Amino acid sequence: MAFLLKSPGTFAANTLTMTKFPLNDAAQWVEAFGAPLYVYDAKTIRGQYFRMKQAFEPSIEVDIHYACKALNNLNILKLMRSLGAGLDAVSLGEIELGLHAGFRPDQILFTPNGVGIHEIKAAVEIGVLINIDNLETLEEFANEFGSSVPVCVRINPHIMAGGNSKISVGHIDSKFGISIHQIRHLHRIVQNMGLHVHGLHMHTGSDILDIDAFMRGADLLMDLAHDFKELNYIDFGSGFKVGYKPGESATDIESFGNKMSTRFKEFCLEYGRDLKLIFEPGKFLVSEAGVFITKVNSTKTTPSTVFAQVNSGFNHFPRPMMYDAYHHIENISNPDGEQRLYTIVGYVCETDTFGYDRKLNEVRNGDLLAFHNAGAYCSSMSSQYNSRVRPAEVLIEGDQAYLIRERETMDDLLRGTIEHGLYQDIVIQGKEEAEIAVPS
Ligand SMILES: Cc1ncc(COP(=O)(O)O)c(C=O)c1O
User: Fold this and answer.
1) How far is the CA of 373 from the centre of ligand 1 (A)?
2) How many domains does the chain have?
């Protein structure tokens, strides 16, 4: 289902938008597809992809593997493939989605964590590239495949970087990667078990603003790389930050590309061969391309604040509760309304605050609130908690709005449930207790 957008595609004059595409048509989208609703803009995604690609010197072969977990709708994966991206997958499910979207197995890097060898064997059978982050698993892999299947290894450089403890994954206490202090052991396994290491990988966290923190990790990895003679690529992961607040800084990708290109070219010279440079961004490509539109159910004045209560919850939009993330919120239905202070909350039966002390144009029942930066880790992390169905997803491509995932229905809440005809009778209070009384 698709419809033609009526607006000329300009930003509403009053819209202090974090989202890089016009929201003039929001009411029309909601009329057609309901609210809450995730909306994504293909043009913004393309823009971010090419910005990243062009940040590096053209003489370096740079592959961008889209981190599927950020937004896994099949149409988004197909869009990425059409741009020439590869895929970063963390589960067999993501691999299957990638194949379904038309990626070749050799364009998919499987970077699981904490999985058993059976999953890795299944991925080898499919033919994707394998990335292993645990020496015990690497030994199992070697016992199974020896020199017949090349492998990439994920190194933990022990660098603290990232916007929140749950998304800082390259430090000493993290479960991810093979510690940089285990390199001697890693070499022992590689040499004695005949493994071919074709790739080195790291990913230290998400929301990294500081290019130097990123470069420190990259330097460590390039230093190690000299002792792996069969490399084809180095994958420096991702973690590029985007702006969540109006005016907030994002990773300066152009400056990063510049620094990284110079350093990587030096490295390749020393190494004696040109290697491929891989990144696996999620957030950078899709975060600002998405907006989440909710409808106000009611407002509620309490002794401490005025709540704006919307028809969604952390089941659809988990980042504020999960990572204390700030998402900019805007009342797009009342452009001339006076600004007032609100606490924006959902309908989940737990505290699910989307934003404290936000200035919004006066909020009335039925107004639409736009949550910005909703492209990454929103719909893909959503759930049916509180037995609420997941919202629909819409993609704006050219002048058309395409429905790319239907709103779930009651059938989806029941899907997979098996009824056995149990418990048809009303239990008579007291009788059953007597039957199951513990014998003395
Ligand atoms: C291994 C790996 N690669 C890439 C990413 C994508 O990170 P980001 O969305 O910050 O770009 C993640 C995010 O969790 C990850 O764990």
Assistant:
1) 16
2) 2
